[in-house]
Amino acid sequence: MIGIGLLGLGTVGAGVVEILNKRQEELKALTGKDIEIKKVLVKDINKKREIDLGENIITSDFEEIINHEDISIIVELTGDLEQSYRYIKRALNSGRDVVTANKAVVSKHFEELSSSAAEKNLGFLYEASVGGGIPILKPLQEALTLNNITVVQGILNGTCNYILTKMFYEGLDYGEVLKTAQELGYAEADPTADVEGYDTLRKLRILGTLALQGEIREEDILLEGISKITAFDIEQIKKMKSTVKLIGEAKELDEGFTAVVQPTIIKEDSYFANVNMAFNSVVFSGDNVGELKFYGSGAGKLPTANAVLSDVVDIIMGSYIKRNPLGERKLKNLNTRIKGEYYLRISSPIEEILKNIESISKELLSTNDNIALRTKEIEYIEIIKLLSSLGVHRDKYFLARILE
Ligand SMILES: NC(=O)C1=CN([C@@H]2O[C@H](COP(=O)(O)OP(=O)(O)OC[C@H]3O[C@@H](n4cnc5c(N)ncnc54)[C@H](OP(=O)(O)O)[C@@H]3O)[C@@H](O)[C@H]2O)C=CC1
Ligand SMILES: N[C@@H](CC=O)C(=O)O
């Protein structure tokens, strides 16, 4: 018997219970063991729940879990950052394998938790933390044995992709679609993490660090979110026969790397343009295998729970990479080199701003209620500096890279 301590019984936790219940026989046939949830940690013990787990399973006291003799795997699905870090550390220190879907905690403590697990010869797996239900981290790590990977990019946030799709194809209002994404269980407890791009940034930090085999920290990644996009922007983007996606990309160049998360305007017939709703996709290139594309549900109860349980099965079967998967390359941050053509909309059309912004403009798209333009090829940092020198507050502009 394998005993599981489940931390969190929200969207994903409930999905884990549901799949475990319905696939018990198949799991036993594969692993030769019964997999049993012994205890479940929640924040509010009095909350009414749809799942009935039987007596004495639910607790709000972590000590009951860590002191439970039959629990050998801790599955962390709380979404909390500080507490979950303490829970995971205690789990590893007490000799338990750990599975988590919590990209915030993996991203913040990646090096420490990875080396701690490897030193103790324990599993620390987090497949669901990137790309929801898509198996991406395991194939990526397997590819690394035979390949140098120099670029990884993707649509990594289901909530943002759902919002952008609904705004683009159905003309729906940003706030209204965000609310639906929350109801569908895609968004984080605080959806700011989704729409301001932090969730994508954390996933890129994990993917990029693994792919390039050198540390890419959260603060190494340039970030623009989607929260400021308006119907006006969508209209301008449609006129370009293009669509817009939030894309994260980490790329190696000249002993260094660039890493950026930004709304990206792409032609309607391009690959990422057809990744819609809460679907995600990750693309990476290896020097032997060439380009590989991964596509699937980026968020939601069952797809995410499926990824979590794949990790659990890998731990039981011992079929995961046992060494610390993080490399030791020291790569230089070359983000100042990020350049391209950008779409820029400023919603305060003052004469002074218009005059100064013209120096970077290739094509003026509107000067009415909004200033909208397509820039010349320019370094991203230069645009940000110009906006700051003109006193244009972050709330007042929307900036997106244009890819032809
Ligand atoms: N939802 C999705 O599609 C995806 C989610 N993830 C990640 O999976 C994790 C779980 O997400 P999700 O299920 O959506 O989150 P929910 O907010 O739906 O559920 C969180 C659960 O954790 C419990 N909890 C929260 N904080 C604590 C704490 N400090 N101590 C004990 N229990 C706590 C809550 O208890 P209570 O029920 O009492 O409130 C709740 O049961 C997150 O890290 C998220 O980023 C990853 C990929 C996709
Ligand atoms: N909030 C996240 C959940 C999965 O990681 C998203 O929308 O992608």
Automatic annotation (TrEMBL):
This is Homoserine dehydrogenase. Residues 8-127 form the Aspartate/homoserine dehydrogenase NAD-binding domain. PROSITE patterns: HOMOSER_DHGENASE. Gene3D superfamilies: 3.30.70.260, Dihydrodipicolinate Reductase, domain 2 (3.30.360.10), NAD(P)-binding Rossmann-like Domain (3.40.50.720). Pfam families: Homoserine_dh (PF00742), NAD_binding_3 (PF03447). The active site is at residue 203. The lineage of its organism: Bacteria, Bacillati, Bacillota, Clostridia, Eubacteriales. One of its GO terms (biological process) is methionine biosynthetic process.
